[in-house]
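Hi everyone, sorry if this is the wrong subforum. Our group has a chain we'd like a structural model of before ordering constructs, and none of us has done structure prediction before. Sequence below.
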Amino acid sequence: MKANKEKGRIPYVNRELSWLDFNGRVLEEAFEKENPIMERIRFLAITASNLDEFFMVRVAGVMEQVRSKYTAPDLSGLTPQALLDKLREQISAFMERQYSCLNRSILPVLKRNGFVFAEPKQLTGGQKAFLQSYFKKLLFPVLTPLAVDRSRPFPMLSNKSLNIAVRLQKEEEEPCFAVVQVPAILPRFLEIPAGEGEAQRSFFLLENVILMMLPELFEPLEIKAACPFRITRDSDLEIDEEADDLMMEVQKSIKKRKRGRPVRLELEQKCDGEIREFLTDMLKVRQKDIYELSGPLDLTFLSKFASLPGCDSLCFEPIVPVSPPADFWGCSDIFEAIREKDRMVHHPYESFDCVVEFVRRAAEDENVLAIKQTLYRVSGHSPIVAALIRAAEAGKQVTVLVELKARFDEENNINWAKKLEAAGCHVIYGLAGLKTHCKILLVVRRDEDGIRRYVHMGTGNYNDSTAKIYTDIGMFTCREPFGADASTMFNALTGYSVPLDYNRFVVAPHGMRTFFEEHIRREAENARMGLPSGITAKINSLVDPGIIALLYEASQAGVPIKLIVRGICCLIPGLPGVSETITVHSIVGQLLEHSRIFRFENGGEPHIFMGSADWMPRNLDRRVELVFPIEDEDLKQRAFSILELMLSDNINTRLMQPDTVYVSIDRRGKASVNCQREFSRLAKEAVKRLEEEERAKPLRPLYSIEEAQK
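Answer:
Right subforum, don't worry. Here is the predicted structure as tokens:
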């Protein structure tokens, strides 16, 4: 494939189709026999959750383009209608693979390990009695059967809710219909007594309990047919950012999300024809947007099943963070440690606790005057937010930018924003037209030699929960150029100032695109001049056409380009005359790769940067993002080694081919390298060496003999 210069089109993979490829790589992990069975189940659940969000946002967006009669092709050459047709085709095939994985690969292995999902026809008398008792005591009082007729319209069903449609008959009258919602407040599966003489653990799905007991809900009507169904709605918020009250506007939009237009209807296979017609008519769903599935709907419930107590032997060996990290070993005063040198922490191999402790100490330290922080996604019981609240209550100046527009975290962020405001924090709700996605924390402290600014910058959110499963990197520094930049950045976020320049920071939307473009062009020029050149970038997504075009140009100039792109990649590597020097690696493993790292060879004096931004138009042009340099020589070398180890991974990595297919690395004759396990081992070994050095130090008595004799 070559660039179409006549039309000005570069080789480009459609981002939606590339995302489906990524979810396919996650599904491959569910098929992978070397993975423990509970982890395979977890991967399958992740693919289902991913697909839900994809429908709610991306597919819904393409449908809206088609409805609005938008016909211009994208960079890949697809019109919205052509793309929608491809998406429907590929999603149908993908969902077939999901259920093939469940029915043919996972359930048989589960059975061999002593776990069974019982079918209604297989139940013993004792199991039926157990389920009848459960229904009468707990389930029946919760259920609300909803008839649908002239006086009772079809109910407004929540997005992603699981429901059962029922076709009923009353004597000689016309058939009538009803809907029963499967209550989300109750566990989706329950453990039932094992069958007689069986050593297996048996489980039964909640919707199957309801299906069994439907006569109890509709007596004396005759039940002719029943079928579980599930709808997915358009959930992409449209927010009027010019509204007087942004929080109220976001809350209104969240309510609209629950009533969005249906974009997918899921049914169990062999659904009754009249029920199918009834649902299609009531929900106004096209036949092309109906997906009939050969198993239970909404496989996201499997994530909870994969976390069953007592199943550790069927899971990955957990990656346990070391605490304290090697960079903070022996440091009793975190501020003193940062004054000594810049510190770097690699999560989750090294504990996120040091970040939490930094905020806690700042909240309690009487010499701390002010704390300023951005929050994009935080946990439900955030210790960081709790510390910020204590700091404000103690009289410190606390400023927090809470991004209310963080998709699907809006409600959580609104709740935290209200609590922070109630405690006396100055809370900003993001900027009009921009999402604030940068990760930065500034502590202003009165030290013995004057006021000093301590800064933490990272690649990931201030979320103690996701920090256990997302790979991210954070850096602590009190270098004055960084502190000055942090103050400038917060002044821009909270006030009207527009910074003309930063000392070290690279900030979107005003300077980041230019920064990356200049660095890529410089590498191309260095290659043409015979100087050392090279680009290595680890990102989550590569979508931006301008960056991709420059990478193609750099490749044609001879620049070696190594890309580690976890998810969407619209660039095509290895094309003759276009991208021959580019390789694309995708790492999908036990942990979710989330850090962003950029290395430029710079004529033999390599520079390395980290930050919050991917190479996507939204990150470069429509968000507040932060990328920062690593200047400490020890930390630079460590950052280089992080990239090198990830590029050597041959367990979790797949390589993108010129035909856009991803393939596993051939490991024949090579030592196996799992970079995530290796990072964990290295973190533990670093701490172990420090422990051994500590033990090897000669013991120093608390008192000398002379002192003891006094």
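For your construct planning: The CA atoms of residues 191 and 203 lie 4 Å apart. Confidence is low (pLDDT under 50) at residues 1-7.
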